[in-house]
Amino acid sequence: MAQSSYEAFKKYQVEADSIEDFIRKYGKHDRYYGRGEEYMKVCLASHKKDFEKYGFDFITHHNSKTGETVSYYA
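The structure corresponding to this sequence follows.
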Protein backbone atom coordinates (compact mmCIF):
# COMPACT_ATOMS: atom_id res chain seq x y z
CA MET A 1 0.00 0.00 0.00
CA ALA A 2 1.32 3.45 -0.92
CA GLN A 3 2.24 5.84 1.86
CA SER A 4 0.30 9.10 2.06
CA SER A 5 2.11 12.40 1.56
CA TYR A 6 1.18 13.29 5.14
CA GLU A 7 3.13 10.29 6.42
CA ALA A 8 5.94 10.49 3.84
CA PHE A 9 6.92 14.06 4.75
CA LYS A 10 7.09 13.35 8.51
CA LYS A 11 10.72 12.28 8.15
CA TYR A 12 11.51 15.90 7.19
CA GLN A 13 9.68 17.45 10.15
CA VAL A 14 11.34 20.41 11.90
CA GLU A 15 10.36 22.56 14.86
CA ALA A 16 8.45 25.82 14.33
CA ASP A 17 5.74 27.73 16.18
CA SER A 18 3.61 28.60 13.12
CA ILE A 19 3.68 28.68 9.33
CA GLU A 20 5.20 32.16 9.53
CA ASP A 21 7.89 30.94 11.91
CA PHE A 22 8.52 27.89 9.71
CA ILE A 23 9.14 30.03 6.62
CA ARG A 24 11.22 32.55 8.58
CA LYS A 25 13.44 29.85 10.10
CA TYR A 26 13.81 27.52 7.13
CA GLY A 27 12.99 29.40 3.93
CA LYS A 28 15.74 31.11 1.94
CA HIS A 29 15.40 34.86 2.34
CA ASP A 30 15.78 35.58 -1.37
CA ARG A 31 13.02 33.10 -2.24
CA TYR A 32 10.47 34.58 0.17
CA TYR A 33 11.09 37.87 1.99
CA GLY A 34 13.66 39.10 -0.54
CA ARG A 35 11.04 39.33 -3.29
CA GLY A 36 9.00 42.01 -1.59
CA GLU A 37 6.11 42.29 0.82
CA GLU A 38 3.33 41.57 -1.69
CA TYR A 39 5.06 38.43 -2.97
CA MET A 40 5.59 37.24 0.61
CA LYS A 41 1.91 37.78 1.44
CA VAL A 42 0.90 35.57 -1.50
CA CYS A 43 3.43 32.87 -0.56
CA LEU A 44 2.36 32.91 3.07
CA ALA A 45 -1.32 32.63 2.10
CA SER A 46 -0.48 29.67 -0.15
CA HIS A 47 1.47 27.89 2.60
CA LYS A 48 -1.36 28.49 5.10
CA LYS A 49 -3.94 27.17 2.64
CA ASP A 50 -1.92 24.00 2.05
CA PHE A 51 -1.43 23.54 5.79
CA GLU A 52 -5.16 23.87 6.45
CA LYS A 53 -6.03 21.51 3.60
CA TYR A 54 -3.40 18.80 4.15
CA GLY A 55 -2.43 19.14 7.82
CA PHE A 56 1.22 19.88 7.06
CA ASP A 57 3.38 22.10 4.87
CA PHE A 58 6.83 21.73 3.36
CA ILE A 59 9.66 23.67 1.77
CA THR A 60 11.66 21.93 -0.94
CA HIS A 61 15.43 21.60 -0.80
CA HIS A 62 15.69 24.35 -3.45
CA ASN A 63 13.98 26.89 -1.20
CA SER A 64 15.26 25.69 2.19
CA LYS A 65 18.15 27.30 4.06
CA THR A 66 19.23 23.81 5.09
CA GLY A 67 19.55 22.55 1.51
CA GLU A 68 17.18 19.73 2.50
CA THR A 69 13.42 19.38 2.26
CA VAL A 70 11.76 20.40 5.55
CA SER A 71 8.18 19.99 6.73
CA TYR A 72 5.99 21.55 9.40
CA TYR A 73 3.23 19.84 11.39
CA ALA A 74 1.37 21.61 14.21
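The helical segments are 5-8, 19-26, 37-54.
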